[in-house]
Amino acid sequence: MEFISQAWHWSISGLGIVLVMFILIYSGERFGISSSFRVMCSAISGRKAGSYFDYDWKQQSWMFLFIIGAILGGYISTTLLADPNPVAISQNTIADLGQIGIEAPSNGLLPDSIFNFDFLMSLKGFILLVGGGFMIGFGTRWAGGCTSGHAISGLSNLQLPSLVAVIGFFIGGLTTTFLLLPLILSL
């Protein structure tokens, strides 16, 4: 159990992603989180939800296993394989976050000062969590896929639109981190 729960080298994940991508490319399938949720929404509501969900989702029903595996994997890793040590965060990151009013996480991965119901009910919380969630959903639909779909699947298939989308994701992430987040938190 200790072997499984210890921190592994990043290259292990990279090799796993490469293996999965070879299998998907060989079988003619595409991968992405938003594609998985599209399949799920199409199976549940189909034509009633709009033309975007009106297609033969049964050809991609394997994505249900991916969604279930992601949920179960997340649960197992946070309960059975959880590391009892505090999250190791760089002192520079803690200092940078402190300058914009975000405290380091006291216990876990998320800062308690912004991931709570009181913060959610504030203007800052609404803009960050609800507005940010809306923008992620809108951007995913507009870009024709999510970051994992474009960066992992699209780039491995040498698709130019995925390269453009990934560059846009990075520009958007940097702009949000260095311009929008400090602005919103200063409200």
Description:
- The longest helix is centred in the C-terminal third of the chain and has 26 residues, at 160-185.
- By secondary structure, this protein is an all-alpha fold.
- The mean pLDDT is 84.
- It has helices spanning 2-5, 10-27, 33-45, 62-79, 91-99, 117-120, 123-143, 147-156, 160-185.
- It has 9 helices and no strands.
- The chain folds into 2 domains: 1-82, no CATH class; 116-187.
Task: Reconstruct the topology from this structure.
Layout: H1 2-5, H2 10-27, H3 33-45, H4 62-79, H5 91-99, H6 117-120, H7 123-143, H8 147-156, H9 160-185
Helix pairs in contact: 3-4, 7-9, 8-9
Which residues sit in consecutive blocks of at least 5 with pLDDT less than 50?
A: none
DSSP helical segment count: 9
Order of helices and strands: HHHHHHHHH
SSE class: mainly alpha
Count of strand segments: 0
Q: Please state the overall shape, judged from the principal axes of the Cα atoms.
A: globular
Helix content: 55-70%
Biggest sheet layout: none
**End-to-end Cα distance:** 47 Å
Give the count of structural domains. Answer: 2
Instruction: Write down the overall mean pLDDT.
Output: 84
Beta-strand content: under 5%
Taking Cα atoms only, what radius of gyration do you get, to the nearest Å? Answer: 19 Å
